[in-house]
Structures are given as structure tokens and as C-alpha cells.
Amino acid sequence: MHERFPQVEQLVLDIAFTDLGRMGTYSPQMHSFSASAKAFFAVACPRTLCLHGGFDLDSAVSAMLSAGATTSTDKLECRGWVDPTCPDHARCRLQMYFRVQARYNAAEANVLSRRSSRTSKL
Ligand SMILES: [Zn+2]
Known about the structure:
20% of the residues lie in helices and 31% in strands. By secondary structure, the chain is α+β, with helices and mostly antiparallel strands. The longest helix is centred in the last third of the chain and has 16 residues. The protein starts with 7 loop residues before the first strand and ends with a helix. 20% of the residues are buried.
């Protein structure tokens, strides 16, 4: 993560699942990423029967970090397939609500605030 987002010290991801088909309930999850972690933000679909499912948070996370935001919430839907023997529920469509929180590097933040105070004097 440090190579892609050097200004970020830590990312915390809180997620909750909603199953519109009420086929099951899934526990909320919490993931945290340190600067040394891989910048690969994806969550596996918790439904055991789901094929090729999962949630890709990469675009949401990089959009948030490039905007310098500290919190972002959104919803994603699983595009995987469930057991082909039950055609009524062909698509997984499990919904995931997530909240990403970022903690930025203090040194980098000082550089930014110094830069902006210099700009405001001009
Ligand atoms: Zn799924």
C-alpha cells in the first residue's frame, strides 16, 4: 500500500452484509490495512454457494484517498452466481455496506498544511 498511497498510514474497513433473498445471515467484518499491507482491497463473498463472487473496493478506496477524504461509505452488490441447480436465485446479489476510514501520515499532513498556509499568504 505504501507504494501506491504513501500518505496513508492505516486504513480500516467496516463491512456489513444484507441478503435480499434472505438465504442466510452473515456477520459483519472489520479489516485493517497498515502501510506495509498490499494495496489490494477486495472482500470475498461470505456465501458458501457463491461462484466467482466477491466485492472489489479498489476503485472506491483509491477515489477516496486521492480526494484526501478520511471516511467514505458506499454499497456494493455481489455479481457472483449461486448454485445453478436453483434457477430462481441465479445471481448472488448479496449486498455489502461498507465504511472506509483512513489515517494519514502525520509528516505528510504537515507538508500539506505548510504548503496550503504558504498559498493563503499569496
Ligand atoms: Zn456472492
